[in-house]
Specification:
With 259 residues, the protein is an alpha+beta fold. It is 61% helix and 10% strand. InterPro entries: DSBA-like_thioredoxin_dom, ScsC_N, Thioredoxin-like_sf, Thioredoxin_domain.
């Protein structure tokens, strides 16, 4: 943990501990004078030595408070960016297009965890009725990923009816997904590689990628896969069971965590 972060955490824990110690002072009937700073400092020291569990209680309370604040911030960002998250033109939408619950996945064609999760996601989409599954391209793993993403977006603009097939084949490729392999898949599906290459330079594609980066930054998404559902945004593999639970909770109470 960085030094300044440790200092801030220690200060917060100390303040919380002082508050708890102050509660003990309030019930003290020994004639203690709280205006005496030296006496107060000694009392707090002695109290914490005798009751070290207070620091653990303070740490738990601090972490819970920070998590609640972070969750509220994420929920607001999701609400404020609903259109860009859920309804951006060109995003691949699977499942029920009019579903009552939307799950968004940020992915990179060269992300091994995204590839490994494909079968689980297909099962979730097949079994979760009323789920709208949005796939959002988030190329963060280098030049090949950027080229593959541009090719994918270009293909969607040229042949939207074949986009899912293109996406599935590019995601299933062995080795690195890049422009050359994307163009080969496009050719197999009847799209001229030269036309695809030219379309990859369309300014709209760059704008879409920048918008996705901006959304990820606001949501503090730093890796792939990343998921947004209900009021939750999380980076990394969380597993099919956790996703199903979050989806079920959103249906039940409107939040990924039901009380």
């Amino acid at each position: 943990m960085p030094r300044m972060k440790r200092i801030r955490r220690l200060a917060a824990l100390t303040l919380a501990a002082l508050t708890l110690a102050g509660n003990a002072l309030a019930s003290d009937s020994s004639g203690f004078d709280p205006s005496n700073k030296e006496q107060l400092g000694q009392f707090v020291h002695d109290y914490l030595v005798q009751h070290p569990e207070v620091l653990l209680d303070a740490q738990d309370a601090l972490q819970a408070k920070q998590q609640q604040a972070a969750q509220k911030k994420v929920a607001k960002v999701i609400a404020d960016n609903r259109q860009a998250l859920y309804y951006a033109p060109g995003d691949l939408v699977l499942g029920d297009p009019d579903g009552s619950v939307t799950l968004v996945e940020f992915y990179d064609y060269n992300c091994p965890y995204c590839r490994a999760a494909v079968s689980d996601m297909k099962t979730i989409v097949a079994n979760e009725k009323g789920l709208r599954y949005v796939l959002k391209e988030f190329p963060i793993l280098g030049d090949d990923s950027m080229a593959a993403s541009r090719a994918s977006m270009a293909f969607e603009m040229l042949a939207p009816n074949k986009f899912k097939t293109f996406h599935d084949r590019l995601m299933a490729i062995k080795g690195s997904a890049d422009a050359e392999r994307a163009e080969k898949i496009a050719a197999d599906l009847g799209v001229d590689p030269k036309q695809l290459e030219a379309k990859m330079k369309d300014p709209k594609i760059g704008a879409r990628i920048r918008q996705t980066y901006a959304l990820a930054d606001k949501l503090n998404l730093t890796g792939t896969p990343a998921y947004v559902v209900g009021d939750m945004a999380v980076s990394g593999v969380i597993g099919a069971d956790a996703l199903r639970k979050a989806i079920g909770n959103v249906r039940a109470c409107g939040s990924t965590t039901c009380s």
